[in-house]
Structure formats: structure tokens, C-alpha cells
Design brief:
The protein contains 22 helices and four strands. With 529 residues, the protein is mainly alpha-helical. A four-stranded mixed beta sheet has the order 3-2-1-4. α8 packs parallel to α11 and α12 packs across α17.
Length: 529
């Protein structure tokens, strides 16, 4: 896999006269840089070896880490002299990607997906080979012992706008010969005898997790059929984006994000299936705008914005992010993370996140705003780390982008968001029955309807009657929203006035543009103060 190295100019006593441009390096040479770094060679040694700057070496390292983070898990096809095999290196996922902090639900979804892929390959007469170990060493041994002749990792980036190509048909395995790995070699390579479970990988449940999603293409395609029926009903009723216009946070989740994130469902297939449903109902007429699949467009937008930005998930050093002096308050942060803020809708959302590994986008927006500019004034970076740990569909580019957006740190016109989500009114409007809160905040499940969203208003007699004393059995509010939201808004205004120029990022030019792009009805914009 690695290209042959030339003698180091410094080792030979000669100083390089010219720094080598990063863009002139081949993919093979960049991989060799990674190999040298993995051999614990310093950035200085590698830079001298290739006549380049240490910052260029750091860029290559970041580029590969981001590539694996964005597109992992990585299933790599390797062509041998006489057979094809699919290999999954979960070393990449657990080590390079920093997912040693991932929670149980996410890893379980991953192992589900691997199991489904293994079942598919077994029907073709082979299996999914899962190795535990250093990918570089495994590749070397495969090359030496199995005649590995080509390794392919594909990443498509289009420079032109337009409709994506239609999904490729299923491969024809008729003339493909699958080989075998001997028992002796399997032992040296660290081949797992079966798809490992989360527990075998060292991931255990924290709170009786019960994720509603099952990983793998089989489950994803079945779920897609259900989602398309929802889309079709919405088209018949004359609107689009049903998951946004009529968010159902009590019913089974309709989002395809986890399947798209792990490659269980092709994004091109999802795009064209939704388009075909619309074409069928409207006799071949195309939709009036791109908003039919707006969320997929935002997904690609965040991918583009994160490209070549190693600090994209950070505030400091991130060229598109506004530097905001957030508070450092671990007590408030932990209350938010554990679902103990005293605001039932916020707490229900955070508890669902930890238990199920997923929450509806309206809940994500609510808890993100509450943590940042709405109430607690805590950095979006800390919220991002929680989402990356617990969300099964966590995506580095998309998650960081959304956190910057909701916190007014990027992708809007210079801190001009004058309103924030009310943790009481927003929840009441999204799910007025209170059953969502009753499901995830059992402490106040028996409270009368009039107090379910604001339990602190319940008289002491009511609290005693239903065995939940506020401040004892369920926490008091960590902050008073009506007070802190005004303080935070004033701080935002002050920061905006001190800024000399806007950060260099794409953003809507006005509120109307955002609404037109998303094609949302006016009723969706009343869930704020």
C-alpha cells in the first residue's frame, strides 16, 4: 500500500531548497505520511523526509482523520489475484475516529449493520471479514500472504451542481470467485470468528438502552418503504417535508439519518425514491424547488463547509465560527446532559437521547438552544460531544454545523437571531398532550395536565398528592428562562456590535429566504418567544 521512500534530505546533510506543495502529493504518498506517523515518527521527521512543512504534515493527518470520521464505518473492497473480499476494520472506527467514547446504542447499530452485511455475503458464498488490529499491518500481511493487488477507498466530491446520479444496481456475483483465509493467517490477522457484539467490544449499557432502530440495509429498506408512505400522504394533502411540518415525537421515528450515516441506505436511492413518489402523484411534473429533499441539501452543505477545515468542530481557530465568551459551568452542563434541568420538555428530550440514541430534530433544536444562547450560555462544543457520543446518526460535519447554527456561532447573519426557543411554550406547541414528558419524566407523570409543562407552578398540596416534591423528587429549574434569555440576548447584541466584520461563511440573507428554502408554513415559526 505504501509507496517507496526516498532518502531524507536532512539525513544526507542537505537542506531542502524548496518546500513541496501539498497539492502535488499523490494519494499513495499521503498514505505513506500516515504510515510514518503511525510508526511514531515526529512531524518534523516526516516533513524533512518529504521536503514539506510540519503544518502540511498536520493537514494530511487531519484530512485522513476527518475522512474516516465523516465516512466511517469503512468497508473496504480489496481485490486479490483470484478472489474478492470485503473487509471491515473496526480499529479505524474505534481508534482513529475517537469512538471509544461512543455509547452503547451507536455501537449496537453498527454491529447490527455488520451482521446484516455478513448475512448478505454469506448468501453469495463468502462472508464479511472483520479484523481487530492495526490496518497498516493487516494490509501488509494480506499483500504478502494473499497477493492483494489493489485497495480502494472511494470518496466522491462533485464540483458542479445538479441532480445526483441514480443509484447503481445490485452487483452481479455470478463470475466472482470468493477465496478463503487460512486458519493460521486468520489468527495472525486477528480475524474475528463472528461479528462482535457491543459487549465484546467493551461497550455496555448505561441506562437500560432501548434503541428503536435496527442497523443494516435490510431494516433500512423496510423503513424506507414506511417513510415513503408518509411522504406520499403529505404530497396528497398538498405539503412537503412531513417530518418537519407535522413533527410526531411520540410515534415511531421516520428519520432515515442513521441508515444514511452508516451507509445502510444509499443517499442517492433515498433522494430518487422520494422524487419518484412525487412524480407519480403529479404525473411526471418535477417539484417546484429543491425543498422536497431540503434536508439532504443541508447535509451536503455542511459537508462542503467542513472540507479542509480541521477546526470545524472547534470555536478557537475555526475561521467560520464566531468567538463567543461562553460560561464554564459544569453543574449546569451536567444537569442538561442528564436531563435534570427542571424543564420537563428539555429533560424528556435528553433522557430519550441517552436511552434510545435518537431524538426528533425539533427536540435537538430545543436542547441545543437551551444549552447555548437560549438559557445556560454554555459552549456548543460541549453539546456537540454529547451528541457525538449518544446519537446513533451522529455525523461530524452535520452535527457540528447544526450546533454552530443553533448557537448563532455560524451560518447566520452576525448574531442577528433576536428570538430563542422557550423550553415551556415550544414543548407545549410541539406535543400539547404532555404524553412525551410523561413517557420520559416519570417523576411528574401523574401531575394534572395544567402543570405537566411547568411543574414548579403546582401547589405543594398537588405535589404531595402525586408524590413528587419539586426540588426533592424532581429538580428545581436550574435557571429562570424569562430572566436569562433576556440577559443572553443582550450579550449577543453586545458581541455583534463589537465585531468588525462577519465571519466568512455562507448564510441566509434574510428570514424570508430561509422560509422559502425550507418551504415551511407560517405556523412552524410561532414556537419562539
Amino acid at each position: 500500500m505504501a509507496s517507496k521512500r526516498s532518502a531524507s534530505p536532512r539525513a544526507s546533510g542537505k537542506e531542502p531548497k524548496h518546500q513541496r506543495p501539498l497539492q502535488l502529493m499523490s494519494t499513495e504518498e499521503k498514505i505513506d505520511v500516515i504510515v510514518m506517523l503511525r510508526e511514531r515518527r515526529s512531524h518534523g521527521e516526516v516533513a524533512a523526509h518529504y521536503c514539506m512543512t510540519e503544518s502540511a504534515v498536520a493537514c494530511i493527518e487531519t484530512e485522513y482523520e476527518q475522512a474516516f470520521t465523516r465516512f466511517a464505518p469503512v468497508t473496504i473492497q480489496i481485490t486479490f489475484q483470484n478472489f474478492v473480499s470485503a473487509l471491515y476494520f473496526y480499529y479505524l472506527y474505534f481508534q482513529l475516529l475517537g469512538t471509544k467514547v461512543a455509547a452503547y446504542n451507536r455501537i449496537r447499530f453498527l454491529t447490527d449493520a455488520l451482521g446484516d452485511l455478513d448475512s448478505y455475503f454469506r448468501k453469495q458464498g463468502s462472508q464479511l471479514h472483520v479484523f481487530k488490529g492495526d490496518p497498516v499491518e493487516i494490509f501488509r500481511m494480506l499483500h504478502k500472504n494473499c497477493g492483494m493487488s489493489r485497495l480502494t477507498f472511494e470518496q466522491h466530491v462533485s464540483s458542479l451542481l445538479g441532480l445526483p446520479p441514480r443509484p447503481s444496481p445490485y452487483p452481479d456475483w455470478t463470475d466472482v470467485f470468493f477465496g478463503e483465509i487460512t486458519d493460521g493467517l486468520a489468527g495472525k490477522l486477528g480475524l474475528c470468528p463472528k461479528i462482535p457484539t457491543p459487549e465484546e467490544l467493551g461497550f455496555f449499557q448505561e441506562c437500560d438502552e432501548a434503541c428503536p432502530y435496527v442497523g443494516g440495509e435490510t431494516a433500512a429498506l423496510k423503513h424506507l418503504e414506511e417513510r415513503l408512505r408518509v411522504e406520499e400522504d403529505a404530497f396528497r394533502d398538498g405539503y412537503i417535508l412531513p417530518n418537519q411540518v407535522n413533527p410526531d415525537i411520540l410515534g415511531p421515528p421516520m428519520s432515515m439519518s442513521a441508515a444514511l450515516r452508516f451507509g445502510c441506505l444509499s443517499v442517492r436511492k433515498f433522494f430518487w425514491e422520494v422524487q419518484e413518489v412525487y412524480f407519480k402523484l403529479h404525473k411526471g411534473l418535477p417539484p417546484p424547488s429543491h425543498s422536497l429533499t431540503a434536508q439532504l441539501i443541508w447535509r451536503e452543505f455542511f459537508y462542503c463547509m467542513s472540507a479542509k477545515n480541521p477546526k470545524y468542530d472547534k470555536m478557537k481557530g475555526n475561521p467560520i465560527c464566531i468567538d463567543i465568551p461562553w460560561y464554564e459551568d459544569e453543574e449546569h452542563f451536567n444537569a442538561w446532559k442528564d436531563g435534570r434541568t427542571g424543564y420537563p420538555f428539555i429533560d424528556a428530550s435528553m433522557r430519550q437521547l441517552r436511552k434510545e440514541g435518537w431524538i426528533h430534530h425539533v427536540c435537538r433544536t430545543a436542547v441545543a438552544c437551551f444549552l447555548t444562547r437560549g438559557d445556560l450560555w454554555i459552549s456548543w462544543e460541549k453539546g456537540l460531544q454529547v451528541f457525538l457520543k449518544y446519537l446513533i446518526d451522529a455525523d461530524w460535519s452535520v452535527s457540528a454545523g447544526n450546533w454552530m447554527w443553533v448557537s448563532s456561532s455560524a451560518f447566520e447573519r452576525q448574531l442577528d437571531c433576536s428570538t430563542c426557543i422557550c423550553p415551556v411554550n415550544y414543548g407545549r406547541r410541539v406535543e400539547p398532550t404532555g404524553d412525551y414528558i410523561r413517557r420520559y419524566v416519570p417523576e411528574i407523570a401523574n401531575f394534572p395536565q395544567e402543570y405537566i409543562f411547568e411543574p414548579w407552578l403546582a401547589p405543594l398540596a398537588i405535589q404531595k398528592k402525586y408524590n413528587c416534591i419539586i426540588g426533592k423528587d424532581y429538580p428545581e429549574r436550574v435557571v429562570i428562562h424569562e430572566v436569562v434569555s433576556k440577559e443572553n440576548r443582550k450579550m449577543m447584541e453586545n458581541i455583534s456590535q463589537r465585531m468588525k466584520e462577519a465571519p466568512p461563511h455562507c448564510c441566509p440573507s434574510n428570514v424570508k429566504e430561509t422560509r422559502l428554502f425550507l418551504r415551511l408554513p407560517q405556523s412552524c415559526f410561532h414556537n419562539v418567544l
